[in-house]
Write a structure and sequence with these properties.
The chain is mainly alpha-helical and about 170 residues long. Helices cover about 70% and strands about 0% of the residues. It has helices at about 5-15, 25-30, 45-50, 60-75, 80-95, 100-120, 125-140, 145-160. The longest helix has 20 residues, at about 100-120. The protein is elongated, with a radius of gyration of 21 Å.
């Protein structure tokens, strides 16, 4: 349970006698603590639902997805060897966070699409980029037919946008 959730739980149990927070109380807490309006202020029933969600909390899912997609889309920030190790570590996090296999698989497809868009942005797929995409497909656990389908979709999309063929396909 996060510190924020613990504080809310304590406040709820002592001050509200188990009553749910009203939207005005939630907004007052957001303003008093300087929270973004989109930050959840959960009551104990909502915290219990989040804690027992078998797919991980929505926040965990959202942050994990952003991390994997961002890492895959721009691998230049870290060395090639470290990159694939890092992606594998992020993948392992999904199990620790309790993220469902369906979400993991959908994120793999999303990450591969993002990486492929990054690769075709210069209207060419080099030999090194082919190798990168092949290794990435393996690390993400995508079947060959799924990776081929995504590649065809993204290449077709890019050729439509650029009004020219992508070299090296």
């Amino acid at each position: 349970m996060s510190l924020f959730a613990s504080i809310l739980s304590l406040l709820k149990s002592r001050d509200t006698n188990g009553e749910e927070f009203s939207e005005q109380e939630r907004e007052a807490l957001r303003q008093a603590w300087g929270l973004d309006p989109s930050d959840p202020v959960l009551d104990s029933a909502e915290m219990h639902r989040e804690a027992t969600d078998p797919t991980g909390t929505s926040y965990d899912q959202q942050m994990w997805r952003k991390k994997i997609v961002r890492t895959v889309a721009d691998p230049a920030e870290i060395s090639r060897e470290r990159f694939f190790e890092h992606v594998s570590e992020i993948w392992k996090e999904s199990h620790a966070l309790g993220i469902s296999p369906e979400v993991v698989y959908e994120t793999a497809r999303e990450a591969f699409r993002s990486a492929l868009r990054h690769v075709v942005a210069d209207k060419e797929i080099t030999k090194a980029e082919h190798i990168y995409l092949e290794e990435l497909k393996e690390v993400l656990g995508l079947p060959n037919d799924m990776a081929a389908k995504i590649t065809q979709e993204i290449v077709t999309e890019a050729e439509t946008i650029f009004s020219s063929k992508i070299r090296g396909v």
